[in-house]
């Protein structure tokens, strides 16, 4: 019998760790905890094994094309496909609300551009009923953007990946132009907001493409809540375990007909573009 496969990026701590834990408890198949650090990843695996759970580990730096290719080759050599893919890896410097161009580019490399690498190398292995879960944020709602041209563009039914890339490029140009230009695009933490708005928009574009191809793949994004993690300096409303509830719902329990949606932390759909 073919072993099903679930993959979580950035799974060594915080929200990602709790998603891996939940999958290990309920998913009937192999669960891969991935992390760019082998040491931290193996430590997380050991922590779960101490609880009687058995995740598998593989190094994965989502910002590295070579690393993504290597992981894709490993999965292809050892499995017949991917059934659940949770794109959780993300960064945010909570101490810096206005970033330099270099800092903004580094954040976007992790939070958004990585999804394109993953789409290129891992999506071809998605099974016909696979579930892709993209971790977004309430800062990933379209209303966080202040530029009317992008408010009008990103809600188009025929939005393209190239247009999303142009949106991100325009923001990076604003970041290059200094603090005022950075702030005028999306306010404080504009780089994080842009990364999550772009991630959400990409979710809907990818779902439309799979629908056109006649595949039963579901691609959804989710706001897990304001989760207390190292990234948020311990601030937040929810524990990581509570934050994992909606992502795990999408990965395991939601009807397969739930596609191309923005899900709130309490598992109800919201209008991304309100």
Task: Characterise this structure.
The protein has helices at residues 14-26, 38-49, 65-78, 101-121, 148-153, 161-176, 179-186, 190-212, 240-243, 245-253; strands at 4-8, 29-35, 56-59, 82-87, 126-135, 218-222, 262-263, 269-270. By secondary structure, the chain is α/β, with parallel strands linked by helices. It has an 8-stranded mixed β-sheet with strand order 3-2-1-4-5-6-7-8, sandwiched between helices. Helix 6 (161-176) runs antiparallel to helix 8 (190-212). The longest helix is centred in the last third of the chain and has 23 residues, at 190-212. This is Carbonyl reductase [NADPH] 1-like.
Shape: globular
Alpha carbon gyration radius:
18 Å
Name the structural class.
alpha/beta
- The strand line-up of the biggest sheet is 3-2-1-4-5-6-7-8
Mind describing the biggest β-sheet? 8 strands, mixed
Brief rundown of the structure:
It is built from ten helices and eight strands. It has helices at 14-26, 38-49, 65-78, 101-121, 148-153, 161-176, 179-186, 190-212, 240-243, 245-253; strands spanning 4-8, 29-35, 56-59, 82-87, 126-135, 218-222, 262-263, 269-270.
